[in-house]
Amino acid sequence: MDWDKLRIFHAVADAGSLTHAGDTLHLSQSAVSRQIRALEESLNTTLFHRHARGLILTEQGELLFDATAAMVKRLETAAARIRDSEEEVFGELRVTTTTGFGTLWLAPRLPKLYERYPDLNIDLMLEERLLDLPMREADVAIRMKEPSQADLIRKRLLTVRMRMYATNQYLEANGVPETMPDLSSHRLICQAATTPQVAGGAMLVRELLTHDIPSRLTVNNYFGVLQAVNNNLGIGVLPNYLTEDFPDLVRVLPEIESTEVPAFLAYPEELRHSKRVAAFRDFVSEEIIEHRRRQRDAAI
Q1: pLDDT higher at 247 or 75
Q2: Whole-angstrom Cα distance, residue 142 to residue 125?
Q3: Whole-prediction pTM value?
């Protein structure tokens, strides 16, 4: 059915008069009448009974009016929500980031975001593959590499380094390595150098594996590495953003670390004015600032 004809039908049914509907729609009575007649012909039914006092809906007309009334109500609700979006934050936001950062840093902080914006729905997509933001595979990305696409707005969040950590319990039982050769008597837990990961992490792992470390466990994400370390299985290569939330981790061989890995938040230019994106961006930025402050305080 023609949407324009349905709009005119609804106005006529609501007004009960071709003339009054024409005034509302800024159309002539004859133009309104032609559209109603064309709609009736397309449906092969009569929608109105004509009489001296105006128009009365037929049974078929009542059915169609119920449908158009529901449509109008939903459109009015949508328009109101769009206007309200200038003040409110609601709806779905698709966020993509790495498995490690998403599970170990971002997800634990999301309760604060939901408390602030209870009508916001996050679709969190955790994978190492870079989703195409301009093609709208996701709305926002947090990545451990500066995006290369020109039509993205980007914000640098923090610098990450991969370092080696173990638990006190493990070190008490197995000793604290003082030099690289000491690692030969420990188990190394890391991602395999060929596993999709940040370049700095892969380079550090390749360097470590040039040494004689006979016992190893490789896992394809940092969440698995952390679980193994927390269960006293060995010394793990992990990102330094974990130390705030996992204060029991003890750094091992502090002179050994990866190159700097910059973390960026990015989103398409077309979402520049999105309230959902702005709310998420500002929230993550605030959490990063607080994270840095606590790291500085801990270092004093």
Answers
A1: 247
A2: 11
A3: 0.68
